Amino acid sequence: KKKKMRTIVLAALLGLLGSCSAKEEKIYVTMRDGFNLSTYINCDFLLGAKKKTVVFEASPYGHNQLEMIAYAVAEALGSDYCGIRQDMRGSGDSQGQDFTLWRSQANDTYDTFKWISEQSWSNGEIYQTGASADGLAAMFGNMHKPQWLKKQLIIWASIDTHTFSYPGGAYREGLQDGWLKTSFPHQWERLRHVSRLHEAPGQWWNPVNGTGKCDLWDFPSVQLAGWYDIFLNGNIEAYKCYNKNNTKNTHLVVEACGHCLVDGFCPIYEDVDADALPLAFMMTLDLFAGNPLPKEMDKVTLHVMGAGDKNSKFIDPFAPGNYWTTLPDFPAPQYTNMYFTSGGKLANFPESQTKQLSYEYDPANPVPTIGGNNLELKCGALDQRPAENRTDVLVFTSDEVDVPLAITGDLKATLYVKSNRIDTDFTVKITDVYPDGRSLLLNDGIIRMRWRAGEFGGVDPQMMTPGQVYKVEVSLWQTSFIFAKGHRYRVSVSSSNSPRFEVNPNNGLPLVQNGTVLSAENTVLVGGEQASYFTLPVVQMYQIPPLDMKALQKNWLESRPPAYKNLLKTMRKYKNEVIRAARPGSDEL
Q1: At what angle do helices 276-289 and 68-77 cross, to 10 degrees?
Q2: Is the pLDDT reported for residue 345 higher than 80?
Q3: Burial of residue 119 (number of CB atoms within 10 Å: 0-12, 13-18, 19+)
Q4: Residue 348 exposed, middle or buried by CB count within 10 Å (0-12, 13-18, 19+)
Q5: Where residue 24 falls among pLDDT bands split at 50, 70, 90?
Q6: In degrees, to the nearest 5, what angle opens at C-alpha 293 toward C-alphas 287 and 299?
Q7: Residues 29-88 pLDDT 10s
Q8: Helix (H, G, I), strand (E, B), or coil: what is residue 270?
Q9: How far apart are the two ends of the chain, measured CA to CA in Å?
Q10: Which of 172, 255, 340, 514 is geometrically suited to a Cys-Cys bond with 273, CB 3.0 to 4.6 A?
Q11: Average pLDDT for the chain
């Protein structure tokens, strides 16, 4: 029921179902290895230019779900455009034994685009859209740089599948297993096995890793990310990569919720986020049509989150934050280290002597996942107190904030750690602590010690020497947030966050190999020469000035064709219905 809700939501959210009128034809396009991919062409060949520009989307979800984005965008742009939708290999009506986890997408996209360019009605130009799994298809479909691809819209996707499948080296169980089960019920066990067989970064992942290959993306694009989205880090890295070779026409919008809105666990921020999808589509329609964006719009547009929203019952009224800002680039933060103390505080300076804080990590009793950047699990800014009140969680809390404290950028913990095992995990969370005690999650991260060398550490794991101290960095991705006066911020450290990440049995064995599950005594060092700390990306308020998004969109639409307005009106209507239906406790879920 939840899967059905999500897929209907994603299409309805965009106002796409039943909104298009062009003639539809189903065909099969043959790939270089002989497999045929099911493809729908939506085009009125009797109207507009004789040679059409194509708006294309490939998806594993079927023709009448996210693929409808390409259909609707082409419809809004007018009769000079055709919408083409394709089921990816191994999904929907397309041939192929199994879904290939996007690894065949470069060949399939190139072959499809070549076929499109050879049709008598094609002018040889293709614009591409893609949301979620389709966004991954759009990115990795460009790995052979098809010359016909000119522009893209990417919604909630990542430029690298290994880092979102194994952040910090840990298998992302909740996302991977949950998505594979619901999306490919007859294939998921085989797909799960092959992914876990390749837990190490390396050559197997090359077809689905665009980092370091930025020269591939030299065309204009719009990208939509979310602070609580499953693909946040890879989405922002994609923007940076695209921006290297097209600094003028690469645009990023970061809302709060991302996929989390679809699961109904983002009530705090949904009012501001209601502007995000319409904004991304307005930018895309102008970009695809060759129109300049309004002068008020810059390259990076961010939802600055906060504890306050005068219209929300969930958070503090009138506290700063929860507004839009638009900037030429991410603001340059002043990175500020907050040191862990032996008394559970966060301090500006480390204690003079090194002390050890130890706990027992039992894989049979992991810290439960409560919110975060999830899919198939509860997500978003949920209260972490149940997870913090455990003997295997170290908690460090700041003093009350005297004046609002703004942060925007990368979140990172630097830990000095040791264990009595050859492998274990360390997890980190940062939360906003309210005066009433609530501890709402901003983001979290993990490091699996045998993969602590990261993406460039090679394919061989590096085991720990029991008792030896290691310095490691834990990425908690990014955020933009304002801590309100009277609030505190908190960092908690442990060794599990399940089922968001698969528990580490502490035995150092590969994921596909069973072995004895061991408890571990893990230690975090604080103070002295081995002082663990958390780094805040502090910015000043003038660096993130508010943008009146409502007025901007209103003035923007006044000078645009009626088709734009109709699409966005329908989108907003469905989005409001979706938000109501998807709230926790709704019968729809």
Answers
A1: 60
A2: yes
A3: middle
A4: exposed
A5: confident
A6: 90
A7: 999 999 999 999 999 887 877 899 999 999 999 887 888 889 889 999 999 999 999 999
A8: helix
A9: 6
A10: 255
A11: 90
CA torsion angle 131 134 136 139 (round to 10): -90
DSSP code per residue over 6-71: HHHHHHHHTT-TT---S-EEEEEEEPTTS-EEEEEEE--TTSS-SSEEEEEEEESS-TTTTTHHHH
Written as six digits, the tokens of 58 are: 């490939």
Q: In Å, what is the CA distance from 110 to each residue of 52, 132, 141, 191, 574? A: 19, 20, 7, 24, 34
- Within 492-585, residue ranges assigned H as helices are 549-558, 562-582
Question: CA-to-CA distance for 144 and 107, rounded, in angstroms?
Answer: 7
pLDDT, tens digit, 9 for 90 and up, residues 225-280: 999 999 999 999 999 999 999 988 999 999 999 998 766 667 677 777 778 888 99
Query: What is the mean pLDDT of the segment spanning 174-191?
Result: 95
Q: What tokens were used for 185?
A: 């019920």
- CA gap 574, 12 in Å, rounded: 6
* Amino acid residing at 132: S
Six-digit token string for 375: 């899919």
Beta strands in 60-185 (DSSP E): 81-87, 122-131, 149-155
Q: For residues 350 and 312, what is the distance between their CA atoms, to the nearest angstrom?
A: 39
Q: What is the pLDDT of residue 153?
A: 97
- In terms of Cβ atoms closer than 10 Å to its own Cβ (0-12, 13-18, 19+), residue 20 is middle
Q: Which amino acid is at 52?
A: K
Closest C-alpha among 102, 111, 162 to residue 137:
102
Cα separation of 536 and 337, whole Å? 6
CA distance 166 to 170: 5
Assigned token pair, 517: 């599950």
Torsion on CA atoms 549, 554, 558, 562, rounded to nearest 10: 100
Q: Extract the tokens encoding 308.
A: 């306050």
